[in-house]
Inverse folding.
């Protein structure tokens, strides 16, 4: 059984940034490994990130995994940081206070799902329910000791029992990456992370995993209840083009995990989504799309839809569709196949467009999982 409720980061104008706000989480699958990295154009020395001209960190590398070996938390961080590093968006630093708030909310969800006090995943807690900690991700993080200027976003997932900590880690993290809105969020500019986890048990058939993300460096404005801004945190070089799936990634899921709201409600069974993202931390930063295509190993073109945020409509190909839910942040573009991808097949993706009027392009290949 899989429980899916979407992690969404809607775009809202705020100071110099587009704001991304989270709402839910879920899914589960198994992504493979990548044989080649999509490294950032510039990287700081291992474990000692430098700052950009805007005051944000350069993409973080060499972050130590401080979770105990063999635990879900250690496995999940290795999986997520490995993916983010290869994608080029930077690793996340474990945060003791965010661990506390994330674990508290995981305990709240698990116990109240078991007691049928709640029927699904939620970021908000009800004070009269068991294991109440604090109402929102922001208030929970502050109760745990996070700075009042730190922005906090949250991603939640739940699924069925797994055989090991590593299997739980893949089911949780990969499920969030096999989507549109979750993928957009999991690869954002946040710099720190806290992880909460409750395994499936005799009392509750579903495990619950929870990620609390923090952004403090060069943050602007008063944090909202559950949001990560696109300004500040850690930022790619302006010449970097990040994408997912990764270059030469294998055993990529054939389908997109269901999300609510649905980015493609007219697609009965969409294939695994592709994403391109560039740095977009200033007001007006835009990634427009000239073309975004996917072909299989025989050269056949895959039918699908190009999905873009509203600010990218002007200058993009006429067939590109504005995100119907208004949840994509600036600087991102997606291609969503209309049908599941074929099993054990190598696909080639090609993207061309412009970042703030400067032409950008990238091409890469990946291989889907066997049946």
């Amino acid at each position: 059984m899989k429980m899916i409720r979407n992690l969404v980061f809607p775009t809202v104008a705020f100071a110099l940034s587009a704001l991304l706000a989270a709402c839910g989480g879920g899914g589960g699958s198994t992504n493979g490994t990548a044989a080649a990295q999509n490294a950032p154009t510039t990287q700081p020395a291992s474990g000692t990130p430098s700052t950009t001209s805007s005051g944000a960190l350069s993409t973080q590398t060499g972050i130590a995994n401080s979770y105990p070996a063999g635990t879900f938390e250690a496995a999940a961080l290795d999986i997520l940081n490995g993916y983010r590093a290869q994608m080029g968006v930077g690793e996340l630093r474990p945060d003791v206070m965010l661990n506390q708030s994330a674990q508290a909310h995981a305990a709240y969800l698990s116990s109240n799902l078991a007691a049928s006090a709640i029927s699904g995943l939620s970021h908000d807690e009800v004070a009269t329910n068991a294991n109440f900690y604090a109402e929102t991700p922001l208030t929970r993080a502050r109760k745990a000791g996070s700075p009042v200027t730190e922005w906090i976003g949250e991603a939640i997932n739940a699924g069925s029992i797994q055989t090991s900590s590593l299997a739980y880690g893949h089911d949780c993290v990969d499920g969030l990456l096999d989507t549109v809105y979750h993928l957009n969020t999991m690869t954002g500019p946040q710099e720190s992370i806290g992880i909460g986890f409750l395994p499936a048990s005799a009392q509750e058939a579903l495990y619950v995993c929870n990620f609390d993300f923090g952004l403090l460096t060069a943050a602007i404005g008063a944090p909202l209840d559950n949001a990560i801004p696109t300004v500040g945190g850690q930022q790619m070089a302006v010449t970097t083009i990040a994408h997912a799936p990764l270059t030469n990634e294998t055993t990529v899921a054939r389908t997109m995990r269901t999300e609510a709201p649905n980015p493609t409600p007219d697609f009965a069974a969409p294939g695994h989504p592709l994403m391109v993202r560039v740095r977009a931390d200033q007001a007006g930063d835009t990634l427009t799309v000239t073309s975004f295509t996917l072909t299989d190993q025989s050269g056949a073109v895959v039918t699908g839809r190009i999905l873009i945020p509203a600010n990218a409509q002007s200058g993009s190909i006429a067939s590109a569709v504005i995100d119907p839910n208004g949840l994509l942040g600036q600087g991102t573009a997606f291609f969503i196949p209309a049908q599941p991808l074929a099993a054990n097949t190598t696909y080639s993706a090609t993207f061309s467009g412009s970042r703030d009027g400067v032409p950008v392009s990238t091409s890469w290949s990946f291989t889907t999982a066997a049946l």
